[in-house]
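Schema walk-through. Below, the input block comes first and the output block second. Nothing else is stored per chain. Lengths vary across the set, and this one has 232 residues.
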Amino acid sequence: MPQDPSTGPAPPALPEVLPVFPLTGVLLLPGTALPLQVFEPRYRNLLEDVLAAERVFGMIQPFAPRQDNRPLPGAERETPEIYGAGCAGYVEHSEQDPDGRYLIRLRGRRRFRVVEELPLHRGYRRIRADYGAFPQDGDPPGDFPCERERLTAALIAYGKNRGMEIGAERIAPLSDLDLIDSAATGLPFHPSEKQALLEAPTLAERASVLLGLLELGGRTPAEGAEGSGPVN
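--- output ---
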């Protein structure tokens, strides 16, 4: 049976020169899936090029949050400062609408640090990536410390405080890794908090960062006020 052209073969080696897609508040982690609609001309160019090559590009956040990620007139000429780390992903599925936009599913492969930014190519940005900065991404997850009961309670409290339905029955079937990564990528944390989750060196540290964010976000206003005040 011929290969579906919208679905790539097994992921290749990661390229040193990596096209990047800056997007505020979007978190890609190794192993997670990210659906994207790509409609700006410069990023359609990016998709055309990566689909013809390794099918790999990086997600990274602008350092200053960009409201709604809406392209404004002249935005195609902007190169806002970006964070120093992101995650490379593999386009495991793509399709193109008649209007030219792409609908893709990006699968996280490995995090990287930005060594340097290179000149624009066909309007999109490229960086030289250092994947060795996160060596554990190349290994199977294995066991790691996870305070499952505390994490579950924090998730439920966080959801309740924000009018979100997060029940224990939805959490129970998930592995520790899936629970941590789905919460990290799916919950409405601030972009800087998303970045902290991305850059946590190990899974245990990511779990710890997530737990802290959930417990902070799950407090009622009265609880949040306790102990607040100037820090000398």
